[in-house]
Design a protein that fits this description.
2 domains, two-stranded antiparallel sheet, 3-stranded antiparallel sheet, Arc Repressor Mutant, subunit A
Length: 247
């Protein structure tokens, strides 16, 4: 499992994702799970005793109860004996992809340019130098908290599982949202409704549609969960790889 030394951090999205949803105990365990996922480079064992040992004077029973509550509120998912937070998986994937690109560019003599004015091509960085000095360089958030322009996988793949006037989702992103927001009974209908609303919004809001829509779906998801009657049959969880989502 490849390890990322640093990942992008979007404080406003963390606050928006947990505000009014988690108590201090839940947030502490949740953020430790996120941190362990980042540290290990992927999903971690569903092991309350291991997590409890990280905290001071905390029992495995307490951690297990908190993890159950976090799963119920869809902040994390249990998959094959492991804990998964879809947003963490996405940030890791994006960081590691960026790292590999930098490493390849460094090995090939640096970032390609349109012309070198007749100068000889530099030798570039060694893999060790690139990894140590540039690979995990922190990228500050932009004013609208959007990743780099090239991050939209829908445009790169050229095909959409959902295509509206503003919202365009690749099959992977659509499946990721379908898993993350599994309480929403008809995701395409919900997306169509949001897409119609977005179409009437200013261009600036439309440009940040991915994060905005993810937040709206998360609120709808939480609303549906809170309205489920006591003792209702649990909603199905899919074990597909999770993609981008909200904190």
């Amino acid at each position: 499992m490849e390890k990322a030394r640093r990942v992008d951090y979007w404080p406003d999205e963390v606050i928006d994702g947990v505000a009014g949803q988690l108590d201090p105990e839940e947030f502490g365990v949740y953020w430790m799970v996120c941190t362990l996922i980042y540290s290990r480079g992927g999903r971690i064992k569903d092991d309350p005793e291991w997590i409890a040992r990280i905290f001071r004077k905390t029992s495995a029973r307490t951690v297990r109860a908190v993890l159950n509550r976090l799963e119920k509120s869809a902040k994390l998912v249990r998959v094959d004996g492991e804990l998964v937070v879809n947003r963490c998986q996405t940030e890791l994937e994006r960081t590691l992809n960026r790292t590999r690109t930098w490493r390849e560019n460094g090995a090939n003599g640096g970032r390609p340019s349109k012309g070198n004015n007749g100068l000889g091509k530099p030798n570039g960085f060694s893999e060790e130098e690139v990894t140590e000095n540039r690979a995990f360089n922190y990228q500050p958030a932009t004013t609208n908290h959007q990743p780099e322009e090239v991050q939209d996988p829908s445009e790169q793949q050229g095909r959409y599982a959902f295509e509206g006037r503003v919202i365009r989702l690749s099959e992977k992103d659509f499946d990721g949202w379908r898993i993350a927001f599994h309480a929403i009974p008809d995701l395409p209908a919900e997306l169509t409704s949001i897409d119609g609303w977005l179409f009437d919004q200013p261009a600036g809001r439309q440009r940040n549609w991915f994060n905005a829509v993810a937040g709206m779906l998360n609120r709808k998801h939480q609303e549906v969960l809170t309205k489920r009657p006591a003792g209702a049959k649990p909603l199905p969880q899919l074990s597909d790889a999770l993609k981008r989502g909200v904190y």
